[in-house]
Amino acid sequence: MFLFFKMAWRNIRRNLRRTLITLSAITFGLSAMIVFFGFADGFHGQWVENTVKAYTGHIQIYRSGYRDDPQLSRSIEDVSRVTRELRSDPAVNTFASRVEVQGLISTAENSYGVLIRGIDPEEEIKITAIKDRIIRGRYLEGSKGGLWAVRGVLIGYRLAERLNADIGDKVVLMVQAADGSLTSELFRLKGIFRMGAVELDSSFAMITLEDARRLALMGERVTEIAVMLNRPEDVLPFAERLKKRLSPSGYEVFTWDELMPALREMIELDNIFMYIILLVVLVVISLGILNTMLMSIMERIREFGIMMAMGTTPGRVVLLVMLESFFIGLLGVILGAGIGISVNRVISIRGFDLSRWGGAVEFFAILDPVIYPETDPRNVLWSCGIVFLTALVVSVYPALRAATLRPVEAMHHA
Amino acid sequence: MDTLMRGDTSAGIYEMTVRDPNWERTLRLRVWEKGREKKTFIRILSPPKEEGIGTLKIGFEMWNYLPKVEKTIKVPPSMMMQAWMGSDFTNDDLVKESSIVEDYVHRVIREVKIEGFDAYQIEAVPRPDAPVVWDKILYWVRKGDYVPLRQEFYSEKGELIRVMTFSEIKAMGGRVIPTLWQMRPIKKPGRETTLRVIAVEFNQPIDDEIFTLRNLMRVR
Amino acid sequence: MLKSPFIKMAWRNLWRSPRRTLITISAISIGLMAIVFYFGLMDGMNSQTLENNIRGHAGHIKVYAKGYKKDPTLSKRIKEPGDILRILSEEPHILYALPRINAQGLAATGVKSAGVMIRGIDLKQEEKASDFKRYVREGIYDIPAGKILIGKDLAKLLRAGIGETLSLIVQAADGSIGAENYKIGGIFYTGEAAMDSSLVVMSLEDLRALTVLGGDVTEITVILDRSENTKGVMRSLEGRLDRKGLELVGWEELLAFLLAMQSLAEVFKYVPLVILIVVASLGILNTVLMSVSERTRELGIMMALGTRPSRIVFLILLETTLMGIAGVILGVTGGMILLTYFGDRGIDFSQWSEGLRTIPFHPTTIYPVIEPVSFYLATGVVFVSAVLSALYPAYKAARLRPVEAIHFA
């Protein structure tokens, strides 16, 4: 048995250049696919993260029925109960409570309907990138100074344009409070942001959680809690756990793809196309290997003939041939995976900037052109397995050809 | 001045004319008011297209009733800044009319002569926390009886945004009041809203039943 | 002179081991077919998504009264568009000029109300011009007078269904309050949250009456025969329409986000091409190397007999070129067949992915269509790299020393 290994190994080394070229085809093919997947996964991952951070977080928790009918009366009352659950779960990175309410923003010249989001400024920057996206003015600070402190509001640049408002301007926010009455309060424009998403930039106004609660007469309540997890993969299992614990108490837990299904779908579609490419690459690699193996068999017809004349069974011949491709396949896969994963690692340190080829500056917050490849171990294992198997399967035909040689004829082959 | 126009109660008939570069409309209104309780009820008498439309305001809440579609609509915040019935008065103006006293600090600047009358020029600056968009409002009121003559609304940029003039001062319903009010938004050329007091009575008792949703939906 | 004997030789050499030649050719052709089909799928999907958006709501060009973009109210309207519609109908490349009225308003049921954007359209004309009809999931598109279409999310918000009554209230163009009751005749779902939650569609006449617009409209949506003609048409119309106080907005501005997303994804389209080329080239390299080494003696003899090394190189390259040509012809033919077959029938993705409908205006059936540029690029690159991969073996062959070569066992 061991003899076979030696023979196979020696055969491979016989024509080193040929072997190396075959090896490099497998290696390159696999590593290229891994890097390609890495880029795609990285792009998708970032897209999701950016969108999720800007809108919903990985998970959103509401009071039951709020999503269908967003009334302020359906708000989360026992916030600490929920936060306790969240704090105790290791999967949770951070969470932020919010009060969201529809309202009107007015300046002396103009007014527009907006979605007012009351945020905890400290908590919120752990989730959204809003602090980094302030283009004029400053970010919100937690309220200090009590009732007479200046209340700040942040709005998007598109809204600022429409309102013709500048930093420091007086702004009145009016909402229909939790008890149905209309309340309004004076705010000052503290900062203007540019998130790169049209909706956010044109119809959102951010104020502190405290201010929002007071404006909407919400007391200690909030309308939703957005949760960010440490790892995106944990979303589903975490959601399940949380649902079990919170649903009976009258809360609803939603994952980001339940709230924004289109995003998930677009990524799935992209992935489908990539699997198709993988398939075609495999076919072309296989054809290459096939040719190579066939030719190497042809070279050794005499040899095989002698072997079989001396008693080597056809089965053993098959085994021998397949061992050769086993080695090449194994080596190719190991190298390919190694190179692919390393390339992904290296590029992901500084990222790869695609902006030369596309995208548009105004949307960079959501469509980030700098890509950090991600290596999904499942994808890698999967690709390796398939490539390896393909290499083996492809060598079946040449192996059979060798095994079905007639020794006498073979030996006389020139 | 507020007390002058509001009083405890008032009930009257007004005519509102709105002029726009593209059109002109005149509405005839019947208005009841209980100033102290911040209740107002308005019924449109004419033209026929709008006849029967009612507006009820209690505190900071406002409802409109449209007989054409038989619906009562609670006015949401997003509609508050919209013009009331197409005029240059916003829903917010109607709702916040009495806030001028609470939300502002008044100061007499000087004495001038305006429209042929001796008047005080008063500057009203909003309190630091008042939910109003104006930076300041200038008033001119007639010396002696404090009948308002003119109002100028300024934004923080120092721009004059709205001007309201009061004229045709007459005695009516037991008081001396301007019967012609004109509101001109400076930034919207060609637009003007004029309110004319046809008849009004002050401090007569008004049935509370009028300020109910039930009454809103009752169209004669 | 160069050609005849060499081509014959090259050809004969190829068929000396038919299996090998065929496998190589099939590697080239399969790779090319796959790339051509993939490009077709990608290009098709992208352009269809754009088309869907254009036909579904944006149009190729929008004609507005000056100032409408900043102040989209009834006051900035296109008065008596008859003239303009005539100009547009005479303009080449314009298929449809659709007058529309947009008005902000309030929709109210007995209990709930919501701010809405009301759009009045010429239902019959728009049925031909846009494919909004297929987004109507419940009820019917051809609503009669007095009926309206609302989005799925709006219906949910207002708790209203087919046949129920909705009041629409607007501030009319003459300053009066327009209020009317309408029955819901259909519910649509586009996947685009903004539309599904705040758009109300009704007939042009109905909205005209409600807003007292007389004969005016607030916009004209222009649909062209081909998107490529947009800039040209806009330039041609600009002068004339500007004089009438109108302005034009092209779809590239209206759909800027979509375009940005697509252009970013373009990069990903070309990566598979590169991967396939490298992998195929390596395979061809090996094959040609081996075929050369098999013929070492023969080549040695040729060189000893006077064939110059450059001719040897030429011969090897020619062999590969012939294979390349065959592979390309097959690949192109195969690819074209695939494209034509699926280009007509389309590939219906919705059977594998119900969720596709949630992507706004995304085609559920994709018709692969390839742009000539992509096509020639792919073909050219594949062919050239196939031939280039034979350079090294050809070089090696030319450097053989005849004496050694002849004695090669």
Domain count of chain B:
1
In DSSP terms, counting alpha (H) and pi (I) runs of 4 or more, how many helices of chain A?
15
The CATH top-level class label of chain B = Mainly Beta
The gyration radius over C-alpha positions of chain A equals 31 Å
Oligomer: heterotrimer
Average pLDDT, all residues of chain B:
82
Structure overview:
- The complex is a heterotrimer of chains A (414), B (220) and C (409).
- Chain A is α+β, with helices and mostly antiparallel strands and 414 residues long.
- Chain A contains 15 helices and 12 strands.
- Chain A has 2 domains: 2-52 and 263-411, no CATH class; 57-259, no CATH class.
- In chain A, 53% of the residues lie in helices and 19% in strands.
- The model of chain A has no long low-confidence stretch (mean pLDDT 84).
- In chain B, 11% of the residues lie in helices and 52% in strands.
- The longest helix of chain B is centred in the middle third of the chain and has 6 residues, at 91-96.
- Chain C has 2 domains: 3-53 and 258-406, no CATH class; 67-244, no CATH class.
- In chain C, 55% of the residues lie in helices and 19% in strands.
- Chain C contains 15 helices and 12 strands.
- The longest helix of chain C has 41 residues, at 18-58.
- The mean pLDDT of chain C is 85.
- Chains in contact: A-B, A-C, B-C.
- The interface between A and C is large, with 56 and 58 residues.
How would the blueprint of this fold be written?
The complex is a heterotrimer of chains A (414), B (220) and C (409).
Chain A (H helix, E strand, L loop, with lengths): L1 H13 L1 H39 L4 E5 L15 H9 L4 E15 L4 E9 L1 H7 L6 E4 L14 E5 H7 L6 E7 L5 E12 L4 H6 E5 H7 L8 E6 L5 H12 L4 E5 H4 L1 H39 L1 H9 L4 H37 L1 E2 L16 E2 L5 H18 L1 H8 L3 H5 L3
Parallel strand pairs in A: 3-8, 5-7
Antiparallel strand pairs in A: 1-9, 1-10, 2-3, 2-6, 2-9, 4-7, 5-8, 6-7, 11-12
Helix pairs in contact in A: 1-12, 2-10, 2-12, 2-13, 10-13, 10-14, 12-13, 12-14
Chain B lengths: L1 H4 L3 E11 L4 E11 L4 E8 L7 E5 L2 E6 L4 E4 L2 H4 L10 H6 L2 H5 E11 L2 E10 L9 E7 L5 E7 L5 E13 L2 E11 L6 E11 L10 H5 L3
Antiparallel strand pairs in B: 1-2, 1-13, 2-3, 3-4, 4-5, 5-6, 7-8, 8-9, 9-10, 10-11, 11-12, 12-13
Chain C lengths: L2 H12 L3 H41 L2 E5 L16 H9 L3 E15 L4 E9 L1 H7 L6 E4 L7 E5 H7 L6 E7 L5 E12 L4 H6 E5 H8 L7 E6 L5 H14 L2 E5 H4 L1 H39 L1 H9 L4 H37 L1 E2 L16 E2 L5 H17 L2 H8 L3 H5 L3
Parallel strand pairs in C: 3-8, 5-7
Antiparallel strand pairs in C: 1-9, 1-10, 2-3, 2-6, 2-9, 4-7, 5-8, 6-7, 11-12
